[in-house]
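Figure caption, in words: inputs first, then the predicted bound structure.
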Amino acid sequence: MKVSIEINGTTVSEEVEDRTLLVHFVREQAGLTATNIGCDTTSCGACTVLLDGESVKSCTVLAAQADGHSVTTLEGLHGEDGDLHPVQRAFREEHGLQCGFCTPGMIMASVSLLDHNPKPTRQEVRAGLEGNLCRCTGYHNIVNAVMNASGQEVQR
Amino acid sequence: MIPAQFTYRRVSSVDEALAAVAEHGDDAKLLAGGQSLLPLMKLRFAAPEVVIDIGPLDELRYVRAEGGEIAIGAMSRYHDLHRDPVLAEHAPLLAHVAGEVGDQQVRHRGTIGGSLVHADPAADLPAAVLAVDGVLVARGPDGERRIPAAEFFQGPFETPLAPEELLTEVRIPAQGGAGWGFEKFTRRSIDWAIVGVVVAGSAVSLINMGGTPLRASATEAALADGASAAEAAALAAEGTSPADEAHATAEYRQHLARVLTERALVSAGR
Ligand SMILES: Cc1cc2nc3c(=O)[nH]c(=O)nc-3n(C[C@H](O)[C@H](O)[C@H](O)COP(=O)(O)OP(=O)(O)OC[C@H]3O[C@@H](n4cnc5c(N)ncnc54)[C@H](O)[C@@H]3O)c2cc1C
Ligand code: FES
Ligand code: FES
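Bound structure (FE2/S2 (inorganic) cluster present):
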């Protein structure tokens, strides 16, 4: 079927198999490879993108379901002056990553979390990111990054 | 992992959905939030020939107070329910439970209708709807029928819905000021409950203590006789035969049911 998705502000229209997953459409049809596939079983959150502004696991959405909708990936984030998005900047400042594999998904899930809850507590950050696994950081600096991005105090 | 081949069809009204299921019958599966169906299809545990996407049916995405009842459209997502003002006022238990399902991303997609029809004995909302004596409204070729939650959950993943029927709405009585409690024991925070307990007023229901969500009837009877939370909770596992498997033995689950029931009763103010 023909699927048209507005990805990071640009419409991508491609003929794909009905069973194509959104994550494959993003990586292969749109050529945007920041979005990673980790578990492929809805468990790790590495594939998180925003669909109509809300975080979803793109390995568990059909491209067809996103047809006519808008998707934002890590590549689509930016700050006000074309600089880094506040969440990206905070992940860098707080060293909220090590290998970086989980980071695109973590950042997209954090953007969605802050959209619903602009001043979360540390506990709310942990609960809000429960769908995203990181095998490197132990989460401490990831929580710091989200606190920093929301203009709150971080824990050393 | 990619699902087996299927034909995707999108419908834009309940009538169109009913016509599509009537046409394809057993060969088709309805796709709501996809948070159970797509993982099953990726693992090839499900391989429908036709997938009918009811995602666009915003006409089934609502929460309304109607007299003493709350009507919840089947396509309402967990995230909608969690922040819904009508539920917050009249059925805070349901709003809370919806916020405890899976994780943020799952709650942005998953629907109450999908959860009830999927009828996983480890799922949260079926037990909550059972505890509040909810009624499920289904529409099919012969019109509409109403099925009480107690008759809806017949076995693991088994309900009386025919392939030609669509669940359209869930109706629950407004809870007034009744106390409520929800306890869920998981290994990791996004997991399904190893055991869970829902308390709604004087009703107590159990998650994952058998093939369907169950009412803890011995506990309920003891409460009606004036038993304390601790005394009533000690009876929570009576008559249950929960699964005995790698994650938890049956005995352990029964122990958890008693402990969690006491906690849920206490947080409900019993
Ligand atoms: C990582 C993860 C964690 C999860 N954790 C939990 C948890 O802690 N607790 C919990 O309860 N659940 C959990 N779930 C399951 C989740 O709640 C699903 O959203 C739910 O089981 C199915 O709802 P859905 O809208 O996604 O339905 P779908 O997956 O689209 O459909 C499920 C089934 O219902 C049928 N169906 C859907 N809507 C209708 C309708 N209106 N009429 C007739 N048939 C219909 C479909 O045909 C299909 O057979 C989790 C899922 C994931 C991926
Ligand atoms: S790859 Fe999608 S959740 Fe892990
Ligand atoms: S930084 Fe390596 S998995 Fe998170």
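The first helix of chain A runs from residue 22 to 29.
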